[in-house]
Write the structure tokens for this entry.
Amino acid sequence: MAKQKTAAMIRAEAAKAVEAVLAGRSMDAALAAVSDDVPLRDRGLVSVMVYGCIRNHWQLQAVVQSLLQKPIKNRDRIISTLLAIGVYQMQSMRIPDHAVVSATVEAARRLRHPQHAGLVNAVLRNYRRQGEPDLQKASGEVRHNHPAWLLKRLQTDWPENWQQIVAENNEQAPMWLRVNAMQSTPEQYVATLAEHGIESSVEETLPQAVRLATPVLVEDLPGFYVGAVSVQDGAAQIPAAWLDARPGMRVLDACAAPGGKTAHLLELAANDLDLIAIDNDPARLERVQENLDRLSLAATLVAGDAKNPQEWWDGRPFDRILIDAPCSATGVIRRHPDIKLLRQDTDIAVLAALQGEILQKLWPLLAPGGRLLYVTCSVLEQENDAVVEAFVRRNPDAAQHKELRNYNIHDVMQPRRTGYQILPGMKGLDGFFYACFDKP
Ligand SMILES: C[S@@+](CC[C@H](N)C(=O)[O-])C[C@H]1O[C@@H](n2cnc3c(N)ncnc32)[C@H](O)[C@@H]1O
């Protein structure tokens, strides 16, 4: 009985979390708000349902609509979400159909929709009988599980790669680690993981990276709490190496939180940098401090606006500047499928204007002979080449730097007009754009 109650609660909580995302909340926030009544061991199950339902939103809704005799009223929308969760479980999770049906019907009651329990039962049984509807002729949104505006942009920006990009976006990303260069090597850490029964491999082209065969909880990573490793995608490990900050240098990390690249810069320079890490979100800046503490690293953290250096700059130029700009995050949809629901087409121009302004305002802070790296986890040209081209037009002294020493990854980097792009899923990496400049 208690088991059945928990099974229903899991589905009801998953439906509430998906609803929250549909109403504009981030998936992380929606999952953090899942009721404490869900036992710890079952919270992973809620996440799997929520990720799956959001990742496949358009297709699942098309399946649900095809099974309904009349549309569900808007005020009862949580019932179509619950049905989508039911269909997703039968499609993709190894849960017996009868268990899915009874737990999902019970979840409708828990959600105070007892009047829809019969409908949920009938629709899910129908799905079990009929199987998948033919969606070949459905809209692009449904066939590719992406919003129309994003599909259009991907088709324009990547005429030869867009199908591969959307397919990769709908997959689950692998878990990557960055081994703390001050403590060990990837080879040593892979051996340590093996002793703990965790299968992993080194990525030869990324000198600190380890890729896990299957994701694990961070608390299961040996030495995590004493700074042996950090969780960081391989593509996010490229910027610190490219900047090549040497011990003693003065470095600005302009959009630093939660501090993944801040920490990597410090690890590569034996924690000997005069590093100023800026972020305009003080709450996120606390995460930078937590990361630095865990890794025993030191930087000066400043809550400030990167595009207003007069607020926080002491006038001394920087040898290295990293601008890991706020962006659409369209390169990391595998990890954050809610981006497909939360972002709007009109956001892109706003982001591009902000990115351009940050770049323009920070270039004068770079010392002669210094290096600046502009990075986004976007695959959209308006945030990448277009921003950088405008910057180069205004600053003809900026000399593009193309040499990435010790990182033989040019085979996965697509040269663009002003920089390089890794597309999501290439070698298992996230989608990132990099444009690097030296000041003569
Ligand atoms: C892509 S994230 C940075 C990720 C980080 N570099 C890392 O590796 O962990 C972009 C960051 O920019 C911050 N941000 C957004 N607008 C900003 C601004 N005007 N000035 C400074 N930081 C800003 C956001 O709060 C966010 O933390």
In short: The chain has three domains: 2-144, 176-231, 234-438. The mean pLDDT is 95.
